[in-house]
Design goal:
alpha+beta, Glutaredoxin, four-stranded mixed beta sheet, globular, binds FE2/S2 (inorganic) cluster
Protein backbone atom coordinates (compact mmCIF):
# COMPACT_ATOMS: atom_id res chain seq x y z
CA UNK A 1 0.00 0.00 0.00
CA UNK A 2 1.38 3.39 -0.94
CA UNK A 3 1.80 6.11 1.63
CA UNK A 4 -0.94 8.69 1.76
CA UNK A 5 -0.24 12.35 2.30
CA UNK A 6 -2.53 14.46 4.44
CA UNK A 7 -2.04 18.21 4.26
CA UNK A 8 -3.45 20.72 6.74
CA UNK A 9 -3.55 24.32 5.49
CA UNK A 10 -1.41 26.79 7.39
CA UNK A 11 -2.52 29.88 5.46
CA UNK A 12 -3.87 32.94 7.25
CA UNK A 13 -7.60 32.14 7.24
CA UNK A 14 -7.18 28.49 8.15
CA UNK A 15 -4.74 29.40 10.92
CA UNK A 16 -7.19 31.96 12.31
CA UNK A 17 -9.83 29.24 12.44
CA UNK A 18 -7.46 26.97 14.38
CA UNK A 19 -5.73 24.80 11.76
CA UNK A 20 -2.66 24.54 14.00
CA UNK A 21 -4.70 22.60 16.57
CA UNK A 22 -6.25 20.43 13.84
CA UNK A 23 -2.79 19.61 12.51
CA UNK A 24 -1.52 18.55 15.93
CA UNK A 25 -4.63 16.55 16.72
CA UNK A 26 -4.56 14.65 13.40
CA UNK A 27 -0.81 14.05 13.71
CA UNK A 28 -1.24 12.75 17.26
CA UNK A 29 -4.05 10.36 16.22
CA UNK A 30 -2.11 9.04 13.22
CA UNK A 31 1.12 8.59 15.17
CA UNK A 32 -0.69 6.72 17.94
CA UNK A 33 -1.15 3.87 15.44
CA UNK A 34 1.47 4.64 12.82
CA UNK A 35 4.39 6.14 14.79
CA UNK A 36 6.72 6.50 11.81
CA UNK A 37 3.95 7.79 9.50
CA UNK A 38 4.53 4.95 7.05
CA UNK A 39 0.88 4.74 6.06
CA UNK A 40 -0.04 8.40 6.34
CA UNK A 41 2.32 11.36 6.36
CA UNK A 42 0.86 14.48 7.96
CA UNK A 43 2.13 17.77 6.57
CA UNK A 44 1.34 21.50 6.55
CA UNK A 45 0.49 23.32 3.29
CA UNK A 46 0.92 27.06 2.67
CA UNK A 47 -2.59 27.78 1.27
CA UNK A 48 -4.95 25.80 -0.96
CA UNK A 49 -6.73 28.86 -2.37
CA UNK A 50 -10.06 27.93 -0.77
CA UNK A 51 -9.59 30.27 2.18
CA UNK A 52 -13.27 31.19 2.59
CA UNK A 53 -14.01 27.52 3.33
CA UNK A 54 -11.42 27.25 6.13
CA UNK A 55 -10.28 25.00 7.66
CA UNK A 56 -9.10 23.01 4.66
CA UNK A 57 -7.41 19.60 4.75
CA UNK A 58 -6.53 17.46 1.72
CA UNK A 59 -5.73 13.79 1.31
CA UNK A 60 -3.57 12.62 -1.58
CA UNK A 61 -3.64 10.55 -3.77
CA UNK A 62 -7.30 10.06 -2.76
CA UNK A 63 -8.03 13.63 -3.92
CA UNK A 64 -10.20 14.41 -0.94
CA UNK A 65 -10.59 18.13 -0.32
CA UNK A 66 -12.09 18.56 3.12
CA UNK A 67 -13.42 21.99 4.13
CA UNK A 68 -14.86 23.49 7.33
CA UNK A 69 -12.91 20.88 9.27
CA UNK A 70 -13.29 21.00 13.05
CA UNK A 71 -11.80 18.90 15.83
CA UNK A 72 -14.94 16.78 15.96
CA UNK A 73 -14.27 15.60 12.38
CA UNK A 74 -10.79 14.31 13.20
CA UNK A 75 -11.78 10.78 14.39
CA UNK A 76 -13.70 10.16 11.15
CA UNK A 77 -10.87 11.50 9.00
CA UNK A 78 -8.40 9.23 10.78
CA UNK A 79 -10.76 6.25 10.71
CA UNK A 80 -10.93 6.48 6.93
CA UNK A 81 -7.16 6.61 6.62
CA UNK A 82 -6.16 3.92 9.09
CA UNK A 83 -9.15 1.59 9.33
CA UNK A 84 -10.65 1.59 5.83
CA UNK A 85 -13.53 3.76 6.97
CA UNK A 86 -15.42 5.91 4.49
CA UNK A 87 -14.23 9.31 3.29
CA UNK A 88 -16.01 12.12 5.17
CA UNK A 89 -18.36 13.12 2.36
CA UNK A 90 -20.01 16.05 4.17
CA UNK A 91 -16.68 17.89 4.20
CA UNK A 92 -16.13 17.46 0.43
CA UNK A 93 -17.23 19.63 -2.49
CA UNK A 94 -17.21 23.04 -0.79
CA UNK A 95 -14.52 24.66 -2.89
CA UNK A 96 -14.85 25.32 -6.61
CA UNK A 97 -13.71 22.44 -8.85
CA UNK A 98 -11.03 24.60 -10.48
CA UNK A 99 -9.53 25.36 -7.05
CA UNK A 100 -9.34 21.63 -6.40
CA UNK A 101 -7.79 20.95 -9.81
CA UNK A 102 -4.99 23.45 -9.20
CA UNK A 103 -4.19 21.72 -5.92
CA UNK A 104 -4.21 18.22 -7.45
CA UNK A 105 -1.98 19.42 -10.31
CA UNK A 106 0.43 20.84 -7.77
CA UNK A 107 0.48 17.67 -5.68
CA UNK A 108 0.78 15.49 -8.80
CA UNK A 109 3.92 17.20 -9.98
CA UNK A 110 7.13 15.95 -8.42
CA UNK A 111 8.84 18.47 -6.16
S1 LIG B 1 -5.79 29.94 4.16
FE1 LIG B 1 -6.35 27.84 4.02
S2 LIG B 1 -6.93 27.68 1.95
FE2 LIG B 1 -6.09 29.65 2.07
Amino acid sequence: MSTRLLYVCEGGDCTEHGSGDIYHKIKECIEAEDPTQERVKVRRFPCFGGCEEAINVTVFPDRLFYSHVTETDVPEIVDHLLHDGNPVERLCGHVKPDVEEIVWDMLDSPY
